[in-house]
Specification:
With 402 residues, the chain is an alpha/beta fold. The chain has a domain of 266 residues: NAD(P)-binding Rossmann-like Domain (Rossmann fold). The protein is built from 12 helices and 14 strands. A hairpin with a 2-residue loop joins strand 6 and strand 7. The longest helix is centred in the N-terminal third of the chain and has 25 residues. The relative contact order is 0.15. The protein binds nicotinamide-adenine-dinucleotide.
Length: 402
């Protein structure tokens, strides 16, 4: 296996630290990104809390501090199929990692424009990469970042397996055991694209024997990794706004700037989580442990723990003294749910999980306090609703909203 990887979406929140980590581990890294995430910042009038550098400065800073070179190609992979094909032929990567999708559920629900953009961007990007791998005739392992959200967030009362579910089917009165893809149950247009991705993977795996790993990732928390903290010019992005900010980072940031912690509904929603330092390690483990030729699509649940939103808010409130405030839930989802997700595969491969702890929460708190002046408080409340007739609650209440 050569050590050249293409990172589609390598300028983003997960892609940038992954690119640095892989480069540090001796991989030749090529980032392909159209910088659309930075353009969405402009559209939303909001930017990363941390002062991220241009991609050119980031790459220069990495060379300055490590001597290592990361290549960058500016391409929209949902639009420019030939560019992907030429890049594959030119660099002949052993693996490609696909982060290049519009990844915020609230943004995907904003209006018809964002719904159509998310579908077009994500589905075309995924399909173009797979089609180009086949067209290139090269043996390339595709690793994709999916979401634990594809399983849906309703209480099912079982530990959700890694992608495939064993079922017994009644065939003429006799029970036959089968293993089927876990039934998808998307709760937003964004999650819908992730479930559609899965079908596309199944097809290309069956028809063209492509080697594919789909990582069903939990909500990523934390911001810095060992590599991004070497030099301030390498700093990772920190989204705090109602559209792109992920729940735990938002809560810690709200506490750091003296804003009440914004819980939706009762806070009874349970979600799966992973720290950014583990994300980058999981990607390396996935690259180095590809499925065997002719194996089905390999699915890992890339998550290390599950918590309810209220539990997180309570922990952060205890740590910081911040008050909790409840807002009408802008999402169409169960008021509360249980969630248990199996994630044995990465543990078997040697992942030593970074669990939620005070030290790490304090680290985020410190970063948020340091860059507090970059925060536009008007962007904190989520103003994207799942249906037109739902209200945007900007006031909130002291008691849970049932
Ligand atoms: N952040 C999380 O908590 C989380 C959780 C689960 C899954 N994921 C998945 O991980 C992946 C990366 O997430 P992230 O948080 O780094 O998102 P991000 O928005 O920060 O990064 C995505 C990157 O892809 C680029 N991109 C998007 N469309 C592109 C296109 N058509 N052509 C080229 N580049 C394009 C963007 O410019 C951006 O740099 C996404 O697929 C997301 O669904 C993220």
């Amino acid at each position: 296996m050569n050590k050249l990887v293409i990172i589609f979406g390598g300028d983003g929140f997960c892609g940038w630290p992954t690119s640095l980590y892989l480069s540090k581990q001796g991989y030749d890294v090529v980032i392909v990104d159209n910088l659309s995430r930075r353009k969405i910042d402009e559209e939303l009038g909001c930017k990363s809390l941390t002062p991220i550098q241009s991609i050119e400065n980031r790459i220069k800073a990495w060379k300055d501090v490590t001597g290592k070179i990361i290549h960058f190609e500016l391409e929209d992979i949902s639009q420019n199929y030939n560019a992907i094909l030429e890049l594959l032929k030119k660099f002949k990567p052993s693996a490609v990692v696909h982060f290049a999708e519009q990844r915020a559920a609230p943004y995907s629900m904003k209006s018809q424009f964002q719904k159509r953009y998310t579908i077009n961007n994500n589905i075309n990007a995924t399909h173009n990469i797979l089609c180009a791998i086949v067209d290139s005739g090269l043996d390339i392992h595709m690793i994709h970042l999916g979401s634990t959200g594809v399983y849906g967030y309703s209480s099912v009362g079982l530990e959700i397996p890694e992608g495939y579910l064993k079922v017994k089917v009644d065939v003429n009165g006799e029970y036959k055991q089968m293993e089927i893809p876990y039934p998808p149950h998307p709760g937003s247009i964004y999650h819908l694209t992730k479930t559609m991705d899965s079908l596309i993977f199944g097809y290309y795996n069956k028809n063209d024997n492509l080697c594919i790993t789909d990582l069903h990732q939990g909500i990523v928390w934390g911001t810095e990794t060992n590599e991004t903290s070497i030099d301030e010019r390498l700093i990772n992005r920190f989204d705090y706004d109602g559209d792109y900010g992920t729940v735990l980072n938002r809560f810690v940031m709200q506490a750091a700037i003296g804003h009440p912690i914004t819980v939706h509904g009762t806070g009874g929603q349970t979600r799966a989580f992973i720290h950014i330092k583990d994300t980058v390690k999981c990607i390396r483990l996935a690259i180095e442990n590809p499925p065997k030729k002719n194996d089905r699509v390999k699915i890992f649940n890339q998550t290390t723990e599950q918590h309810s939103v209220y539990e997180l808010a309570k922990k952060i409130s205890k740590l910081s003294g911040a008050k909790i405030r409840y807002f009408v839930n802008p999402r169409k989802e169960d008021r509360d749910n249980t969630l248990k997700v199996s994630s044995k595969s990465f543990l078997k491969l040697g992942l030593n999980p970074t669990k939620l702890n005070e030290g790490l929460m304090n680290e985020i708190h410190k970063i948020a306090s340091k860059y507090e002046n970059n925060c536009d408080k008007s962007k904190i409340i989520c103003n994207s609703v799942w249906k037109k007739d739902m209200i945007v609650d900007t006031i909130g209440s002291e008691t849970p909203i049932t």
